[in-house]
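Supplementary Note 3. Input sequence used for the single-chain structure prediction.
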Amino acid sequence: MFLSRHAPLQPRILSACLLLGGLLGGAQPSLAEETSGNQRWVSDSLNTYVRSGPTDGYRIVGTLVSGEKVELLRTQGDYSQVRSASGSSVWIPSRDLQSVPGQAERLPQLEQKVADLSAELKGIDDAWKVRVQGMQETLDSRKKLIDELQAARGALDAELTTTRSQLRDAQAQLGEEQQQVLMRYMAYGGSIAGAGLLLGLILPTMLRVKRKRNDQWV
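The predicted structure, written as discrete structure tokens, is reproduced below.
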């Protein structure tokens, strides 16, 4: 398509050059694979003058805007004949043609890629937040369970200490009672032994006295 000889550069192309230079360079190989046949694009330099013939001696008949899509018809020397979107055939220096779309055409694709990557990143971020929240809830529940178990253990330790103290007191009391019972048994045994001894001493005497009395009566 023909424009005036001093047609200005599109602001969108300039901003794309400054902000997405790295992305443009990375996207060129994949975009180049998609092009085939005789499709060409005017290079992303300043507006390119076109001529009526394949040498610098032919007159300038207009300009092509950077990034404009054209159809390559043939090449002769340093010039290539192209057909613009308007259908006109003109000659342009071959160095001003490129086999990949210009920045003006690549920019929407790159913007879409950036939007897709941003959406994907947001999805990953949201999924990670949900996962972290789930992990935090799990940690909180486990911490609560640990606190409850520690509290129960503390109560059991206190109860065990009390039970051991009560057991020691009961054992001490039982020892005292056993000692008292033993002393009672010993006292009872001594009394019985003393009574037996006394009976052993008295009984023979009584028998002798009784026998004497019987002898006297006879």
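The CA atoms of residues 63 and 153 lie 89 Å apart. Confidence is low (pLDDT under 50) at residues 1-35.
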